[in-house]
Amino acid sequence: MKYYVLFGPPGAGKGTQATAMVEKYNLHHISTGALLRKEIAAGTELGLQAKALIEKGCLVPDEVVEGMIENEFKNVTGVDGFLLDGFPRTLPQAEALDNILTKTSEEVTATVSIMIPDAMIMERIKGRAIKEGRADDASEDIINNRIATYHNQTEPLIEYYRKTRKYHEIDGAGTIEEVRDRIFSVMDKF
Ligand code: ADP
């Protein structure tokens, strides 16, 4: 099994690119953001707790998303691997992922990081807000908090994956097809 981590700031285009990646490499897409939004829509207890945090631009607790990931690994078969989108987002989550995979003698295959500057983050999320109507895309304050959360809590993961030579950064500026082809040229190596 291949375990790819799709990494990058909010608005980098992870969701868009994930669709092409899962199709080409027969992967199962796990988006923790999408899973959480599903819980919110279903009105579950977990969804209720997550909603308040997400709408402030904060992260939900590590244990919550870790449990979701482990469930997906257990329940999905018939694929060549998994594409993790939006997870891990903190150092403890990255360590938890390593621990989960070690149990079955597996490991992260590669981290594909889509990089865009902060100014582009704001521009892209505002564009998406019009189309998708996500509550956490609604105000500049929330978006700014998510950008800050990314820099403080998620960015340290770059160093974590660099150390084990699993970090592959690609330029997220350009057309969807240009970025996709840059991603494919990295993934073709595995
Ligand atoms: P984006 O890529 O635009 O940041 P996501 O859909 O990945 O959006 O996530 C939306 C929100 O869901 C995050 O801002 C966060 O509150 C919550 N979330 C998603 N993944 C995680 C995670 N791994 N750990 C904690 N919170 C998460």
Description:
- The chain has 190 residues and is α/β, with parallel strands linked by helices.
- It has one domain: Rossmann fold (3-Layer(aba) Sandwich).
- It is 57% helix and 14% strand.
- The protein contains nine helices and five strands, in the order βαβαααβαβαααβα.
- The chain has helices at 14-25, 32-42, 45-54, 62-75, 91-102, 118-132, 140-154, 156-163, 176-187; strands at 2-7, 27-31, 81-85, 110-115, 167-171.
- A five-stranded parallel β-sheet has the order 2-3-1-4-5, sandwiched between helices.
- α1 (14-25) packs across α9 (176-187), α2 (32-42) crosses α3 (45-54) and α6 crosses α7.
- The chain is globular.
- The protein starts with a strand and ends with a helix.
- Residues 10-11, 14, 32-33, 36, 53-54, 58-60, 65, 86-87, 89, 93, 136, 146 line the site of adenosine-5'-diphosphate.
Layout of strands and helices, then pairs:
Elements lengths: L1 E6 L6 H12 L1 E5 H11 L2 H10 L7 H14 L5 E5 L5 H12 L7 E6 L2 H15 L7 H15 L1 H8 L3 E5 L4 H12 L3
Parallel strand pairs: 1-3, 1-4, 2-3, 4-5
Adenosine-5'-diphosphate binds next to helix 2 and helix 3.
Distance between the termini: 11 Å
Determine the mean pLDDT: 95
Q: Structural class from helices and strands? A: alpha/beta
CA-atom Rg in angstroms: 16 Å
Largest sheet: 5 strands, parallel
Shape annotation: globular
Helix share, percent = 55-70%
Secondary structure: number of strands: 5
Q: Indicate the CATH architecture.
A: 3-Layer(aba) Sandwich
CATH fold-level label: Rossmann fold
Side-by-side strand order of the widest sheet: 2-3-1-4-5
